[in-house]
Amino acid sequence: MISWRGDEQVLDVGTGRGLLLIGAARRLTSGKGTGIDVWSTKDLSGNSIERTEANVEVEGVKDKDKVELRSDDARRLSFPDACFDIILSNLCLHNIPDEGGRAQACREIARVLKPGGTAIISDFIRTGFYQKVLVEEGLKVSRTGLNLLSFPPLRVVQATKE
């Protein structure tokens, strides 16, 4: 869903074990990928920054200029406005326990996305809500139908900031 140039600044919200972050890092030449998580083992067993660091190393993308991992909450991102070209999030936002928190996470994603940037959020529930909040933030948003070939079946919200 992304036409990579290689120089993008990428944020993976709820990186978990780093699947999307590592995939993005492989496409980067001069760009950088940052993965954030609260490292909750309730939502992903054994979830820890150390395990994700090990995956980054095993996958051959361990370079401090290419990949960074942080402990950060999606509802209060510690980044300046408009600093990421691409924001990815998979099976994360539904873990935020309340609707207000999920809305705040969507607003934070919109805030740190650069003009011309793209956010891609996949989840199995609440994607219509994410879409609504991102539209309210002025982003151009589309949502796919349910992908029954994934487990769990996912919908993807794609948002661009103009």
Supply the helix-strand structural class. Answer: alpha/beta
Output the radius of gyration. Answer: 15 Å
> Rough shape?
globular
SSE series:
EHEHEEHEHEE
Largest sheet at a glance?
7 strands, mixed
Task: Give an overview of the whole structure.
By secondary structure, this protein is of the alpha/beta class. 27% of the residues lie in helices and 27% in strands. It has four helices and seven strands; from the N terminus they run βαβαββαβαββ. A seven-stranded mixed β-sheet has the order 3-2-1-4-5-7-6, with helices on both faces. Strand 1 (9-13), helix 1 (19-27) and strand 2 form a beta-alpha-beta unit. Helix 3 (99-112) crosses helix 4 (127-136). The protein is globular, with a radius of gyration of 15 Å.
Which short descriptors sum up this protein?
162 residues, 7 strands, single chain, 4 helices, alpha/beta, 7-stranded mixed sheet
